[in-house]
User: Fold this.
Amino acid sequence: MVLLLLSIQKIVMQKAAPLVKRTIKGMANQDKFFDRCFMIADLGCSSGMNTLLLASDIIKTVHEVCQENNQKTPHFQMCLNDLFGNDFNNLFKLLPNFYKTLRKDKGEKIGSCFVSAFLGSFYERLFPDESLHLIHSSYSVHWLSQVCIYNI
Assistant:
């Protein structure tokens, strides 16, 4: 059952990947993220490799866009969010291999990546105003009963 869920999550992420890529390229065209740190939030994140796969795909896309625009790749801050019951310890145990793979695939030109956990419900405010560049949610938004009215 767990493998089926992981496969479904991966399929959804693959289907959303072109939209995420277009969004990042659109941001680059408006010079929205060519600063020192690109802030990403994954709302309702998984506690396994799919979360890091998403992070890797976003970092890869930003890196490619920066190269296309002759810009230095920024640092990355990946803000993982889920309810208190999520096993972030399992996720953080995967980070050394994630960092090693990033460096192997992208070399030293890739900016540093910092990963942190933000516990709590996205029904409440999780981040300060204008602190994030990209917010992603694969499966958690279907639980929302209304559109978020925060100016993020």
Observations:
- Confidence is low (pLDDT under 50) at residues 1-5.
- The radius of gyration is 15 Å.
